[in-house]
Automatic annotation (TrEMBL):
Catalytic activity, EC: 3.1.-.-
Segments forming domain GSCFA: 21-256
Membrane-spanning parts: none
GO molecular function, one term: hydrolase activity
Keywords: Hydrolase
EC main group: hydrolase
Pfam families attached to this UniProt entry: GSCFA
Domain of life from the UniProt record: Bacteria
Taxonomic classification: Bacteria, Pseudomonadati, Bacteroidota, Flavobacteriia, Flavobacteriales
Record SUPFAM superfamilies: SGNH hydrolase (SSF52266)
Name the UniProt record assigns to this protein: GSCFA domain-containing protein
Length: 315
C-alpha cells in the first residue's frame, strides 16, 4: 500500500563529490541544504551576502561580483547609528561606513572567486514579490526594517523573472562554462504576503523557471514538490507552520543526496559523520582513561581525513 505520492527523481550524471566546489545562493532553504553540506565537510560557499529571496537580488549580486562593480558610499545608508546596504542581509552591517564597504567588497571578491572555481552552483528561488525603494527606484534585497512607506511592493511578472534568470545563467556560463547550475524553488511559503499572493508568487517562479530549464542546460531539484506532495502534513513543519522542521529537512536532504551526491562519496561522509558525532560527545568524566583514549582515536580519524582532504576543518 502506497501512502505517499512520490516525486520521480533521476540521478545526476554530474554528481557532487569531495573534489567538487559548490556555491549556494538564494532563499533560506539554501541555509538548510548548506548546513548539511557543511556538516559533511564538502567544499562550499554559502550566501556570502546573506539570504536573497528573489531572482533580481541574486542576479544583481552575481553581476556585481563578475563585473567587479565595487560598493561605494552611495550604496550604503545609516540607520540608528548603524550602516547597512539594501543589497545585503542585515547581519552585514557596521557602525563604521568604511568598515562596511570593506566587508561588502571583500565578499564581492570572494563571490567572484567562488563562482569562477565552482563545479556546481545551487540557486534557490523564494519569492516573486519585491520591494522597490521609492527614493532610488531600486529593487532591494532586504528592507532592514526601514519604514514600509519608503517602498513600493510589486509582484515580478513571469517575463521579468525569465529575463533575470536568463541574464543570470548567461553571466555564469560566460565566466564558467563548466559549472553545473541547479535550480530549486523554496518550499517555504511566504504567507505574510497573503495565502493567494504566495501562490501567485510561486506560480510565477515556476512558469519562468520552466522556460529557463527548456532553454538552457541547467538542472532542477524539486524541493518544493517534495515538501508539498510527499510531506503534506503539519508534523513536518516548524512551530510557525511555514518552515520545514528538522525532520523535513533531513528527508529532503536524503532525496538530494540520492540524486546529487556521488555514491563513492558516501563512505567519506560516514567517516566525517563519525568525527562530527565524536566532537559532539560530552563525557561524564573528561579525565578518565577511557575518554583520553577516545580523544586520541578521534584525533587520529581527523588526521586521516585531513591527509586525504586538506580543506576539511573541524572545530
Amino acid at each position: 500500500m502506497e501512502l505517499q505520492t512520490k516525486i520521480p527523481l533521476k540521478s545526476s550524471d554530474n554528481p557532487i563529490d569531495y573534489h567538487s566546489k559548490l556555491v549556494l545562493l538564494g532563499s533560506c532553504f539554501v541555509e538548510n541544504m548548506g548546513k548539511k553540506l557543511d556538516y559533511f565537510k564538502f567544499q562550499q560557499m554559502q550566501n556570502p551576502f546573506g539570504i536573497l529571496f528573489h531572482p533580481l537580488a541574486i542576479e544583481n549580486l552575481v553581476q556585481r561580483a563578475i563585473q567587479e562593480e565595487s560598493y561605494q558610499k552611495g550604496d550604503i545608508f545609516e540607520q540608528d547609528g548603524i550602516w547597512r546596504c539594501f543589497e545585503a542581509h542585515s547581519y552585514l552591517r557596521s557602525k563604521d561606513s568604511g568598515e562596511l564597504l570593506q566587508l561588502l567588497n571583500q565578499r564581492l571578491t570572494e563571490t567572484k572567486i567562488g563562482l569562477e572555481a565552482s563545479s556546481h552552483i545551487i540557486i534557490t528561488l523564494g519569492t516573486a514579490w519585491v520591494y522597490e525603494h521609492r527614493d532610488s527606484n531600486k529593487i532591494v534585497a532586504n528592507c532592514h526594517k526601514v519604514p514600509q512607506k519608503q517602498f513600493t511592493k510589486k509582484l515580478l511578472s513571469v517575463t521579468e523573472i525569465e529575463s533575470s534568470l536568463n541574464n543570470l545563467v548567461g553571466m555564469i556560463r560566460k565566466m564558467n562554462s563548466l559549472a553545473q547550475i541547479i535550480f530549486t524553488i523554496s518550499p517555504v511559503r511566504h504567507v505574510k504576503d497573503g495565502f493567494m499572493e504566495n501562490q501567485r508568487s510561486k506560480a510565477h517562479l515556476f512558469a519562468a523557471l520552466h522556460q529557463i530549464i527548456k532553454g538552457h542546460s541547467v538542472s532542477y531539484f524539486p524541493s518544493y514538490e517534495i515538501m508539498m506532495d510527499e510531506l503534506r502534513d503539519y508534523r513536518f513543519y516548524g512551530k510557525d507552520m511555514v518552515h520545514p522542521n528538522e525532520l523535513a529537512v533531513d528527508y529532503i536532504w536524503q532525496k538530494f543526496k540520492s540524486v546529487w551526491i556521488a555514491k563513492d562519496a558516501y563512505p567519506i561522509m560516514d567517516e566525517v559523520e563519525a568525527v562530527q558525532k565524536g566532537l559532539m560527545h560530552r563525557p561524564f568524566n573528561p579525565d578518565s582513561e577511557a575518554h583520553q583514549k577516545f580523544k586520541t582515536s578521534l584525533r587520529t580519524k581527523i588526521t586521516y581525513l585531513q591527509e586525504r582532504h586538506s580543506f576539511m576543518k573541524f572545530d
